[in-house]
Design a protein that fits this description.
6-stranded mixed beta sheet, two-stranded antiparallel ribbon, 3 helices, globular, about 40% strand, 8 strands, alpha/beta
């Protein structure tokens, strides 16, 4: 069974992405979080250019924009891209795994 890890990305040129999902040391998803609707970040476009088969999402806390950029980055409100369900101790991810959320499943 391969291990899944959550990391962030920042390089010497100042490009950064909030979340990089890794499986067996290889990226399987990129996620940038924003407070409101915003154009897709150049950092996500940079990572998509290097890892074109890895899904990339930009989610906004209160935005309404829902589209896919020409670079293949999904821009969507958090409520459409993240699914949580209430449990006794608070919120926990629903049946969807991070990779299925990133792939749009």
């Amino acid at each position: 069974m391969s291990a899944t890890h959550l990391r962030s990305f920042r390089d010497i040129d100042g490009r950064e992405v909030d979340f990089v999902l890794l499986e067996s040391g290889k990226p399987i998803g990129f996620v940038a979080g924003k407070g409101h609707d915003a154009p897709a970040t150049g950092s996500l476009a940079y990572l998509r250019s290097r890892f074109s088969d890895v899904p990339a999402w930009q989610v906004s806390a209160v935005g309404t924009k829902d589209c896919v950029t020409p670079d293949g980055i999904r821009v969507a409100p958090a409520e459409k891209s993240l699914t949580f369900q209430a449990t006794g101790g608070g919120a926990s991810p629903a049946a969807s795994t991070p990779s299925s959320i990133l792939s749009g499943a």
